[in-house]
TrEMBL record:
The keyword rRNA-binding does not apply. Residues 88-296 form the ABC transmembrane type-1 domain. It comes from Cohnella thailandensis. It is a multi-pass membrane protein. It is found in: Cell membrane. This is Carbohydrate ABC transporter permease. The lineage of its organism: Bacteria, Bacillati, Bacillota, Bacilli, Bacillales.
Length: 311
């Protein structure tokens, strides 16, 4: 009793101390987030400034947030070929079609293996997961694509990656979080599997489907290696990323110094450099995804939060 009576009582924080602590915490948060914003935005803004700067002046360095010698010659060099516009069309088509097909196919398979009454769901899930760790290799994969008749074919961009195991796991985990009573009520009303999926499950899965759609769209838009392997001999099936890769390679190999010259459509000389071409290519490739992301951001955050609860 004596010890308990003599023990010091914990000091209560006054409103003034609490208010001061909140202010210090808010200031630290603002400073940290501002630094994070600068670190995130500066590389992109610097790349944009280099792409809008004259190549001969960019070689000197010292460009930060604004172009020192404004010029559109880098963009004229990148878009000087007519193949760029055809390649852009193919990139848009493979991104749109590939994203839609992948999302629908992955969602249907995920719904199937999420149902407890499906006997083979564990076996099929394990079989899918094994493919994440074991790969046949580049040459067997090429031989398989050749035997399937997909060489010099647009569908080589869509069919081989129609089911992504990572996307499958995310969608399955999201579906398992849905109330079972909703699905059971649909079954009681006489709905079959397809009607239950399209009328009940699919609308409830929009957040995670938007997340998977963003992943797939970014992959499809940025992919160029499959073009090099399977469709490099067919210019009509070339994509924007592959054409930009060829432009960068040409700018590196045709220039012994840090600059190169190219003829524009009107016959005038355009001076470019590998540095300016890399910056321009980065902006051209990134802008479409930057435009799309804000519209999917709220679904992206919710889908990753809920879909990542279970593995």
């Amino acid at each position: 009793m004596a010890n308990s009576a003599s023990a010091p009582k914990p000091r209560r924080l006054s409103r003034r101390d609490s208010s001061l602590g909140d202010k210090i915490f808010d200031i630290c948060n603002y400073v940290l987030l501002t630094c994070l914003m600068i670190v995130t935005l500066y590389p992109f803004l610097n790349t944009l400034a280099v792409s809008l700067n004259a190549a001969s002046d960019s070689i000197k360095g010292g460009i930060h947030l604004l172009p020192r010698d404004f010029s559109l010659e880098n963009y004229k060099y990148v878009f000087r070929e007519n193949t760029i516009f055809t390649a852009t069309t193919i990139s848009v088509l493979r991104t749109v079609i590939g994203t839609i097909v992948t999302v629908f196919a992955s969602a249907m398979v995920a719904y199937t293996i999420s149902r407890p009454e499906y006997v083979l769901r564990k076996f099929i899930t394990i079989a899918f997961i094994i493919t994440m760790y074991i790969n046949g290799g580049l040459i067997p994969n090429y031989l398989l694509i050749r035997d399937l008749g997909l060489i010099n074919n647009f569908w080589v961009y869509i069919l081989p990656g129609i089911i992504g195991v990572f996307n499958l796991i995310i969608i399955r985990s999201f579906i398992e979080q849905l109330p079972e009573s909703v699905i059971e009520s649909a079954r009681i009303d006489g709905a079959g599997d397809f009607r239950t999926f399209f009328n009940i499950v699919f609308p409830l899965c929009l957040p995670v489907l938007a997340t998977v759609a963003l992943f797939t769209a970014v992959y499809q838009w940025n992919s160029w290696f499959d073009v090099f392997l399977y469709n490099s001999s067919n210019v009509e099936l070339s994509t924007l990323q592959y054409e930009l890769q060829k432009i960068l390679q040409n700018s590196n190999t045709t220039s012994s110094a840090e600059s190169a010259f190219a003829n524009s459509a009107n016959g005038s000389a355009i001076k470019v450099s590998p540095l300016s071409i890399r910056a321009t290519m980065t902006i051209v490739a990134a802008v479409p995804m930057i435009i799309i992301y804000p519209f999917l951001q709220k679904y992206f955050v919710k889908g990753m939060t809920v879909g990542g609860v279970k593995g």
